[in-house]
Structure formats: C-alpha cells, structure tokens
From TrEMBL:
It is a lipid-anchor. One of its GO terms (cellular component) is plasma membrane. It holds the Pfam family Ras. Residues 233-343, 406-476 form the BTB domain. Belongs to the small GTPase superfamily. Rho family. This is BTB domain-containing protein. The keyword Repeat does not apply.
Length: 599
C-alpha cells in the first residue's frame, strides 16, 4: 500500500481542521478549537489503488511560523486552505502560504482548497458580506500555477473529489521523483560517504481543549413549579362550580392567542401592527359573559384600590362540562409545552383533553394527545421544546420591559426597567429569594422599586431577556458582563452559554496572531475564576498553556501567578524537552552544512 503524507496549511479559523475531521469521520465538528498540531490517518481507494494517507494539520497563527515547518519534511502533497468567507485568507495563500511551502519543499505538489463553500448557498448566505467567488479563487490558483478544489466540511460537498485529486497529485509527484533518481543513477567515484541528514524532532500532541457543557434548559420545570405554587397569581379559574385554579396572565397570554383575546392583552401593550401580525383581537366582556365564547361562562375583575398594584385580579368561570382534571392538563400544556399525561390514563380522559383543546384553539395540545393515543409519545418532547421557544418569544414581545402588568421597577443607571415577579422568581433563585416575603421586595401589596448599582442597562436587559425567553443576546452584547450577572443572580445555564460564546470570541480574535491579539485571555481567566465560571477558567488555562510561546511575550503574563502559573508551566506546549530537541536539531543541521528548515 502506498503511503502519502498530506500537510494542510492556511490562516487560522479558515476550516482546515473541520475539512480533515469531516473527511475522516463523515461528521462536522460542532466546536472550533484552534489546532496546534494534530495528525490523522486513513486508508482509501483512489483509481482502484489502495492508499494510506497521513493527514498533518497545522496551526495558522503567526506565533507558530517557526515551528510549523517542522511538519514539512517528506511531504507528498500540500493543501493551501482559505475560507470563501474572508478575502484576506485567499490573499494570504498568495502572499504567505505558497511562498512558505515552495521555499521549504520546492518540488512538492500543491493543491489550493476553498473551504466553507456552503456559505454561498441561498439559505445560509450573509447578504451583507462579500464572499470570495469561485471565479476569483480559480484565477488566483491559475496565477500560481496550481489546481483548485472547493469544499464544504459542513455539507461534505466536494470533499471526496478534493482528496482524490490530492492523492493523484501526490502519486504523480512521487513517480516523477522516482524517475529523476533513476535517470541520475548512482555515483561512487569520489569514494566519500554522504552524511545522513538529521531528522526533525517529532512534535508532541498538545491535547484537546476542555469540552464545554451547556446545562439542560430548566424553562419547562421552572414554570411547572410556578403552576404548582402559583404565587403572584392574577387569574383564578372556577371549574366544576367551586374548584379554584390560580394562574398568571403573563403565561396564559404568551402561550395562547385564545387566552390573550380573553384577557385583552393587546390593549396598551401591542401596537396596531403587532396586533395585526399576531391576529389578537380581544373578546368583549359582553361576548364572554353571554355565552358567546365556547368554554367560557363568565369573566369579571376584582381590583382592590387599596393594594397599590397595577394588576387586576380576574376570575374566569369555565363551562360546567369542563372537568378540573382536564383543565389542569391544559394548564400544564400552557405552562410547560407538554401536559403530564400518565401512561395508564384512561382513553376517555385523553379524548376529553382533545375536546377542550379544540374549544380553546390549542391544535398542538390536540396533536400531543393523538400521539399518546397512537403510542408515539416520543414525538412530544420536541413539540414541547418548540412551544416553549414560541412562548418565550411572545413573552418577550408582549411583556419584557413593558409597564403593562409589571409589578417590579428596576432603577439601572438612571433608567427604569420593568419586570414581573412571577417570571423573575421562577427563573432565578436569587430573585426568588428576593421576592419570597422575607425581604421588602417580597411585599405582595404594591409595585416595588429596586436599585441595581454598577450594572450597564444593556447587560441587565440581556439577563432579563434570558429569564423571559431562555435565550440571551450574548453575541450582540457584552458576554463577560452578562456572565458576571448570571453568576450574581444564580442562573447557571446562562453562565454556560456565555462561557461557550466567549471561547468562540477568543478563537476568532486569536485566529491570526495570539501574541498581538487585543483580547486579554489572562484577564479573562481571572474574571472567570472570580465569578465561578469553572468551564471558562479551565478553557483559558488550556489555551494559555498550549500557546505558551505567544503568551510569555505578552505584558500581562507577569500577573499570572500562584496556582495558575504552576498549571501553565506544568502543561506548557510545546514542552521544554521538545524545544531542547529543536535546538539540538538546528545545531546538527548547522554542523552538516544544511540549511535549517526551522529558521
């Protein structure tokens, strides 16, 4: 079997590692981890011939310009990679990568490879960003006198063709070198034995970056607990004559257009355009109280002016044919996305839930019940996840930072930010304690004002958006500042999301040069440790350790002390032993009179 050494080079974050991983595993990696140096191996068939390919991945950052060429000796084919997303990466193929590989290996075949071609597709294309066209890339390759292949690691488009071409180029190059050797023959006329060329030291693996885990969403569980213990309720349903079920307008109106019409949520809350978009036109009280809305017997308000609260208590009397147990399943659906339907629930009870779901215009609830009847319950969790996202999005649109129904006012940097105690206490343990009654903020009788010191408004709004929706605008805001608030208000999943986003931002900022990057990873490490972001802390320690050469040249390296400094020194990459081997290799090359491939 023919062995081929394939080395891929290119700017950082252009997709080199994804290209190799996708080809070798038939799957796209979900996380970007900057490659230090890594190797893969695969046996393939090309043109009916078995070939063993050794894939050598390299780091594109300038910090590794000295070490990278150690991967080049005995290379059979170079892949010069760029991303169609950035013209600069294509330009660097001409200005940096082609000159570099032809300098060290002037007779080795080269293939230029365009990565992330799927970004040009209609569904994923960013209309505001100019992408490198196929024609521009082809012209660049032609000017360099090398072939061009275009790929997508995400969709695997062009992958096989790309590596088949690479193998053919490598085999042709090896055959050409073999013919040259035979044509020159052997000469022993001078009787001198040629000195063996020193072999470069083998680059040790740097290890993978720590995997960041995202806590499973607690959105549905949080709201189920609220349904079980409905504090701050403003709606009471009367079922079966005297049974009372206490609930919350903010949940009912966000989860159901039918109940939004019952409670008139559009009044004072939504613009005319929003009402048209969401088709919410309130039922009149006359219609509700005259039997004009099926399932509803009557609706009336009980507003006590002594209670300095903006909320009016609303009582809804349901039709006599609606059972309390059935309506409880409806409420579970509205609060959590999926009702608690037991395995041994009688068929007639499931059928009754379907009937009431039709009364209250809840087609997804009907679908969930039908799935249960058809023994297809496995479909229901995904429906629940989708509905919770929809509920969160509507809650943001109707209630986030809106004075309507608000019972909390936060004073943040001189601005008023409106909130709802039921949401805040359900989604944050700290907020829950704040409004539990043991503190002044827990007073049920009035709207409370709370001062939030030393906090940017945008960061606080991002925290509230997460509490209301289970999503936060981290990419558009201050990820570190939001992480600090997530720790302060005990919202661990938001902290995880911030950790993940921040690591991606570090990767992007350091894709070209780590030593000169504007981002302070050591300062980020200290922030992560101060605010209990354990995963981010571990990731930063790994990043600093595996890029030791770059970080030791940065000014802030001096503030890396104590346990952090010890960890980085013990796990530094490349290790001192390897650097000593490199020095020895350079010395031997100099003694042999050879040009050192490391310089």
């Amino acid at each position: 079997m023919q062995n081929i050494k394939l080395v891929i080079v290119g700017d950082g974050a252009v997709g080199k590692s994804c290209l190799l991983i996708s080809y070798n595993t038939n799957s796209f990696p979900s996380e970007y981890v900057p490659t230090v140096f890594d190797n893969y191996c695969a046996n393939v068939m090309v043109d009916g011939k078995p070939v063993s390919i050794g894939f050598w991945d390299t780091a594109g950052q300038e910090d590794y310009d000295r070490l990278r060429p150690l991967s080049y000796p005995q290379t059979d084919i170079f892949l010069l990679a760029f991303s169609v997303e950035t013209e600069a990466s294509l330009q660097n193929v001409k200005e940096k990568w082609y000159p570099e590989v032809t300098h060290y290996c002037p007779n080795t075949p080269i293939l230029m490879v365009g990565c992330k071609a799927d970004l040009r597709d209609g569904d994923t294309a960013d209309r505001h960003k100019r992408l490198v066209t196929y024609e521009d890339a082809k012209a660049m390759a032609k000017s360099l006198g090398i072939p061009y292949a275009e790929t997508s690691a995400l969709t695997q488009s062009g992958l096989k063709d790309c590596f088949d071409v690479a193998v053919r180029l490598a085999l042709n190059g090896m055959e050409h070198k073999s013919r040259l050797k035979k044509s020159k023959g052997f000469s022993f006329s001078n009787g001198k034995k040629r000195k063996a060329v020193p072999i470069p030291p083998l680059m040790p693996p740097a290890g993978k970056a720590p995997w960041l885990e995202i806590e499973t969403s607690t959105f549905a569980d949080n709201w189920y607990r609220v349904l079980e213990d409905p504090r701050f309720h403003d709606v009471t349903f009367i079922v079966e004559g005297d049974r009372q079920l206490n609930t919350h307008k903010i949940v009912l109106c966000s989860a159901s257009k039918f109940f939004a019409k019952v409670f008139g949520v559009s009044i004072g809350t939504m613009t005319k355009q929003q009402r048209q978009m969401n088709a919410i036109e309130s039922f009149s009280r006359q219609l509700l109280n005259s039997g004009g809305v099926e399932g509803i017997a009557s609706v009336y308000d009980d507003h006590d002016p002594k209670k300095e609260t903006p909320q009016r208590q609303t009582t809804v009397v349901l039709s006599e044919d609606i059972k309390a147990t059935t309506f409880l399943r409806v409420l579970e659906f509205l609060y959590t996305g999926v009702p608690r339907l037991s395995e041994n629930m009688p068929e007639d009870e499931v059928t009754d839930v379907i009937r009431v779901a039709r009364l209250f215009k809840l087609p997804q609830l009907e679908t969930i019940c039908v799935n249960v009847q058809n023994d297809e319950e496995f479909l229901n969790p995904s429906i629940g996840t989708f509905l919770n996202d929809e509920t969160g999005a509507m809650m943001k649109q109707l209630y986030l930072n809106q004075p309507e129904y608000a019972d909390v006012i936060f004073n943040v940097q001189g601005s008023k930010v409106y909130g709802h105690r039921v949401v805040l206490s359900a989604r944050s343990d700290v907020m829950g304690a704040m409004f539990s009654g043991r503190f002044m903020e827990g007073n049920d009788q009035k709207t409370v004002e709370i001062n939030i010191p030393d906090t940017p408004v945008d960061n606080f709004l991002a925290l509230l958006e997460y509490l209301y929706t289970d999503h936060a605008p981290i990419e558009d805001g201050d990820g570190v500042g939001i992480l600090v608030l997530a720790d302060e208000y005990c919202v661990p999943r938001l902290c995880n999301l911030c950790e993940l986003y921040i690591t991606k931002e570090v990767d992007r900022s350091c894709s070209k040069n780590i030593e000169k990057s504007s981002i302070d990873v050591i300062g980020l490490l200290h922030t992560a440790q101060a605010y209990n972001a354990r995963q981010l802390s571990n990731w930063c320690l790994h990043f600093i350790s595996t890029n030791y050469i770059a970080f030791e040249k940065r000014e802030e390296f001096s503030v890396l002390t104590g346990e952090n400094r010890r960890h980085v020194n013990e796990n530094r990459w490349p290790p001192l032993s390897y650097l000593q081997e490199v020095e020895e290799y350079e010395k031997k090359m100099a003694e042999a009179g050879e040009k050192c491939v490391v310089m």
